[in-house]
Amino acid sequence: MTNMNLNPQMSRRTLIAGATALSAAGILAGCSGDGDTASAGSTAGTTAAAGAFKIGGIGPTTGGAAIYGNAVKNGAQIAVDEINAEGGDVQFELNFQDDENDAERSVNAYNNLKDWGMQILVGTVTTTPCVAVSAETNTDNLFQLTPSGSSTDVIGGFEDADGNISIPRKENVFQMCFTDPNQGAASAQYISEQQLGTKIAIIYNISDTYSTGIYNSFKAEAADLGLEIVSETSFTEDNQTDFSVQLNDAKNAGADLVFLPIYYTPISLLLTQANQMGYAPKWFGVDGMDGLLTVEGFDTSLAEGCMLLTPFVATAEDEATKAFVGTYSEKFGETPNQFAADAYDCVYALKQAIETAGVSADADFTEICDALVETFTSSDFAFTGLTTAGEEATWADTGEISKQPMGMVIQGGVYMPLDA
């Protein structure tokens, strides 16, 4: 597949989004949640040898976004168990805390993990909590690699709509996931190159950082590519149950493809209501669409043909994917999504970086952070994992990852590679 630079102002190692062959949840802009402080973490799994690196994880394992947090927790635990079972010099101990997708609880979880002795953070899972926690890790100089916190505010250093950098670069924070702008631009490129639609509608969540970030970059890239956007409508967290206005606007404008930079729960309602009104365009989403087939009470036949971009497709035939899916299914009784795969890759990327840097588990977390930052941004460091489409991924000084997205389509009630 052909790589192309999505943003000429970014480093040459910034995300290159090709347009061929993308599971979701997450990257996510978090919503507020209710409940108590973060629950105790999980350290279950293969026993680590003395002197193991202490990895913390934070994400929602309860509440409405639990599908994402549990996937990350499970994927990371599989990687930790495998690495520890190998008996090598690098061993890990994982402590995963529930934040219920709430920023305040996420910061509380971070403080709990610091008390435990955390040296590296894999998280957080959802974006709004990740923005809050990354400010804390940056102050403390503790290395953070998020599997799914996709907003540019997580890593900082990006200009806002007025050209100002309101959040400076957090040099200790890196992403395994695509940033929101790159998801939007990559989606526009894919739709254009595959000629999926001639008249495009966009329905997005104006109250959500994740959704608006992808919407803005998609719209800008679509304009550059000459895509015709005939309808742009939005909703908020408080009114995401009735989409008749948005759907009628798209239908009346003649849209034959609807771009949905939103999460799977409102998408399930959108598809149901569109079916009821006899509107059947092509549907194209991003990683937030992953999880659509798990919505209780949703007629999954309405998801047939839905497309999205993702870094991981569980039905891919490469040996690494088949092995991971087999292990995950055996342990947890379900098929892993992209969040599980990104978390798995986070742990293995950390192992490789630790080995490259030559840092030991008895080092102070700030010393570990400095060594890992230098390694991740080195021109000689590259990582190949489940979510890199068989190619080497690299990280820019911005904290962004450069890796290849894949197209995915729902066929026969399962996610399939779009270009298979």
Describe the structure.
With 420 residues, this protein is of the alpha/beta class. The chain has helices at residues 66-86, 103-116, 127-140, 152-155, 180-193, 209-225, 244-252, 264-276, 319-332, 338-357, 365-376, and strands at 53-59, 92-98, 120-123, 143-146, 173-175, 199-205, 228-235, 257-260, 282-285, 307-310, 394-395, 401-402, 406-411, 414-417. Strand 8, helix 8 and strand 9 form a beta-alpha-beta unit. The longest helix is centred in the first third of the chain and has 21 residues, at 66-86. The radius of gyration is 20 Å and the shape is globular. The protein starts with 52 loop residues before the first strand and ends with a strand.
Secondary structure blueprint with pairings:
Blueprint: E1 53-59, H1 66-86, E2 92-98, H2 103-116, E3 120-123, H3 127-140, E4 143-146, H4 152-155, E5 173-175, H5 180-193, E6 199-205, H6 209-225, E7 228-235, H7 244-252, E8 257-260, H8 264-276, E9 282-285, E10 307-310, H9 319-332, H10 338-357, H11 365-376, E11 394-395, E12 401-402, E13 406-411, E14 414-417
Parallel strand pairs: 1-2, 1-3, 3-4, 4-5, 6-7, 6-8, 8-9, 9-10
Antiparallel strand pairs: 10-13, 11-12, 13-14
Helix pairs in contact: 1-10, 2-3, 5-6, 10-11
Low-confidence runs = 1-47
Overall SS class: alpha/beta
**Total helical elements:** 11
Calculate Rg over CA atoms.
20 Å
Estimate percent helicity: 25-40%
General form: globular
- Separation of the first and last Cα atoms: 13 Å
Q: SSE order, as H and E?
A: EHEHEHEHEHEHEHEHEEHHHEEEE
Percent in strands: 15-25%
Write down the overall mean pLDDT: 88
The spatial strand order of the largest sheet comes to 7-6-8-9-10-13-14
Total strand segments: 14
Give the biggest beta sheet.
7 strands, mixed
